[in-house]
């Protein structure tokens, strides 16, 4: 039985493979396809379903779809089906224009969370609904088992902190949160990251650490005395979360989620 477009999208998403749905939303003049035509492009550039006309325009659209998957952004773009003209001219002889909309499905962003405590437990459902893929890291394997793995289908890592950080490959553009059960451990993890893994940390989209204003100031002062450059401390969101007067784990989780959304939606 031939699969339809929606079944293919669902299968790709379930396999953690993002896809781009390309739709012809406007045509003028002579074009190889009519308005409403669609094609589905995989994260490897494979045409999974449909067509927008074949030839050069389809090849250019597939290349553009890959760019949108990699940048995790939708796009509305006009293509000229002419030999010469704008930089988006296709070299085709049709002479018309096609406006294409590139829609992205299945793109998620990794967020590394140090600490599996009460705040993390409240935060995880929010993150899953916001398009993040959480990876929870804690040195208490039994805690991860009881509090996290049995409740939510998220990836977990356990081992001696902060040393085990060296076993983790951090994806560029990902997010990171430090909210362990101990301020001393938070400080050790932050110091390790900003000294041993600083080149990767600079490529993160977000790095946050929990703590009161006073505590954070003390931690930063100690880290500077230990040789951590101020420019690295300046990238840390601490105290973590938006200042909404949050007190409970539930409220703190909301403030953190709100800050993550703000960072993700910023143009910086």
Give the secondary structure arrangement, pairings included:
Blueprint: H1 5-14, E1 19-28, E2 38-42, E3 47-50, H2 55-71, E4 75-80, E5 97-105, E6 109-114, H3 118-129, E7 132-138, H4 141-149, E8 155-158, E9 175-178, H5 183-196, H6 198-201, E10 206-209, H7 213-225, H8 230-233, E11 236-237, H9 249-265
Parallel strand pairs: 6-7, 6-9, 7-8, 9-10, 10-11
Antiparallel strand pairs: 1-2, 1-5, 2-3, 4-5
Helix pairs in contact: 3-9
Question: What would you note in describing this structure?
Answer:
This protein is α/β, with parallel strands linked by helices. The protein has two domains: 5-105, no CATH class; 109-265, Rossmann fold, CATH 3.40.50. 37% of the residues lie in helices and 23% in strands. The strands form two sheets. Strands 8-7-6-9-10-11 form a six-stranded parallel β-sheet, sandwiched between helices. The protein has a five-stranded antiparallel β-sheet with strand order 3-2-1-5-4, sandwiched between helices. The protein is elongated and about 70 Å long.
Name some characteristics of this structure:
single chain; 268 residues; alpha/beta; Rossmann fold; 2 domains; 6-stranded parallel β-sheet; 5-stranded antiparallel β-sheet; 9 helices; 11 strands; 23% strand; elongated
| H and E order | HEEEHEEEHEHEEHHEHHEH
Oligomer: single chain
Give the strand order of the largest sheet, numbering strands 1, 2, ... along the chain.
Answer: 8-7-6-9-10-11
CATH H level of the largest domain: which superfamily? NAD(P)-binding Rossmann-like Domain
Which CATH architecture of the largest domain would you pick?
3-Layer(aba) Sandwich
Radius of gyration: 23 Å
The helicity comes to: 25-40%
């Amino acid at each position: 039985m031939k699969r339809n477009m929606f079944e293919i999208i669902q299968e790709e998403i379930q396999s953690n493979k993002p896809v781009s749905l390309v739709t012809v939303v406007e045509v003028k003049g002579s074009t190889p396809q009519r308005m409403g035509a669609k094609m589905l492009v995989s994260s490897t550039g494979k045409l999974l379903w449909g067509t927008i006309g074949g030839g050069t325009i389809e090849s250019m659209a597939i290349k553009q779809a890959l760019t949108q998957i990699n940048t995790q952004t939708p796009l509305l773009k006009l293509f000229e089906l002419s030999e010469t003209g704008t930089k988006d001219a296709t070299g085709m002889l049709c002479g018309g224009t096609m406006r294409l909309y590139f829609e992205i499905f299945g793109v998620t962003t990794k967020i590394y969370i140090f600490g599996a405590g009460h705040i993390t437990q409240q935060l995880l459902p929010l993150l899953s609904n916001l398009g993040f893929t959480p990876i929870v890291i804690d040195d208490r394997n039994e805690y991860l088992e009881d509090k996290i793995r049995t409740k939510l289908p998220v990836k977990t890592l356990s081992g001696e902190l902060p040393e085990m950080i060296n076993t983790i490959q951090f994806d560029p553009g990902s997010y990171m949160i430090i909210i362990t059960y101990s301020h001393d451990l938070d400080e050790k993890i932050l110091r390790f990251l900003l000294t041993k893994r600083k080149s990767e940390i600079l490529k993160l989209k977000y790095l946050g650490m929990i703590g009161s204003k006073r505590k954070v100031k003390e931690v930063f002062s100690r880290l500077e005395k230990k040789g951590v450059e101020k420019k690295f401390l300046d990238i840390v969101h601490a105290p973590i979360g938006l200042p909404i007067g949050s007190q409970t784990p539930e409220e703190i989780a909301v403030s953190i989620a709100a800050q993550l959304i703000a960072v993700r939606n910023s143009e910086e």
